[in-house]
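Revision sheet: C-alpha cells.
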Amino acid sequence: MASMSFRGKNEGLQIGDNTGSVLHWPLVRPETPPSPLSTIPFHRDPDFVSRDILLHRIHEKSSVPGSRIALVGLGGVGKSQLAIEYGYRVRFESPATWVFWVHASNEARFEQGFRDIANQVKILGRQDPKVNIFALVENWLRDDNRGKWLLILDNVDDDQLLYPFSVATEMDL
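Predicted:
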C-alpha cells in the first residue's frame, strides 16, 4: 500500500493500493460546532434589583417568534443591567438557547460583535476577509436546525447602524 501527501484544493493524505481503492483524509479536521452557549461579557449582578414586571413583559414579548424588543431610556437607568439579567435567565430556563451579546456603539464594534459570533459558533467561511459577516451570521441564525437564540444589541445609539442595506435600497428606488 502506498501513501502520498499533496497540496492544493484537495490537500491531504491519500492511501491506496493498485486495485483502485483510495482513502482520502484531509490534513485539517473540520471544526465541531459547539453546543448552545452565551456570549454575555458581564457577570450576573448579585445585587440586581429585580424588576419583575419589566422582565415578565420582555419575556412575554420575546416569546413570539421573530420578535424584536427595544429598551429605550436615558443612559444610566439600567437598560443594560436588565438585558444582562434577562440573558442569564433565558440561559438558566432554557440551556439549549443561544444567547449572543453584541456591543453596537459604533460600526467597528458592531461588526466585531458579529465576527465574534461567527468565531464562537465556528461558521464555515468566517475567516474569508471578503465575506459579508452580517449575511453569514444572519444565514446561520435563520437555520431552524440551530434552535432558539437571543441576540442582545447593547448601546445602539444610532439605529441607522442597523439598516445600512435598507437605506441604500430606499435611495435606489
